[in-house]
Amino acid sequence: MQKIQQTSDAAEVQTLEEEAKIRKVEAVDATSGIDADRFVEIMTIAQNDSDLPARIVEKLKK
Fold first, then answer.
1. Domain ranges of the chain
2. pTM for this predicted structure
């Protein structure tokens, strides 16, 4: 994210965003019990429910 904010070249921004997306999918795929589609579903719900991110963090701490 920091590299994206530091560049003004649109092509470089797009390349960095694509690399970040690939890394996110790889990280989710490497996690047992969840796939990328489920992760996206959870994140979409979390963006629409301001209390959900805090509840997720609490669950992860346990």
1. 1-30, 34-62
2. 0.54
